Amino acid sequence: MRRLALLVLPVLIAACGDSVSVEQPSEAMAPTIKVGEEVTFDQAAFSDQPPRKGDVVLFSLPRSALGGGCAVPQRSRQACPAPAKGKSDARSVFRIVAGPGDRVAFRRGRAVVDGEPEKAGSIQVTDPGCERCDLPVTVTLPKGHFFLAGDNRSVAADSREFGPVPKSFLEGRLSE
Q1: What is the pLDDT of residues 127-137, one digit of tens each?
Q2: Whole-structure pTM value
């Protein structure tokens, strides 16, 4: 049985002004963030600039992420198409792969956004049989929502599982 990593951050390590530091508890963002690595997020980042593709973000998980997945019916070989209602108290860290109005699918672990495959960059697929890495049926993101994915696509339980995330759930951008 394959283990999926739903990067739930139960403890904030330190908060100072407009930044917060968290410790990475899983392999979901490897190799970008290693297990046990402490990283800092700028919580004021989105007051100056809107979230954009490629940002690694700290966010509140939708309730459906803790309750077992997609809150709406989805087609075969399609990522979760719609956001769940309600924010949980749990936080997670993933990369924005698509934004409002974008059409997203996945092929061999790479997001295909509006027909363009994302650059391989730090994406890894450690399980060649990863079924969730090939989701060719597109999802169109609603206004004000972002599609988030872990860099380790084989193990991350991300928007493919729980759907797009509203901008209001985004809490900060990874500090450089």
Answers
A1: 988 998 999 99
A2: 0.89
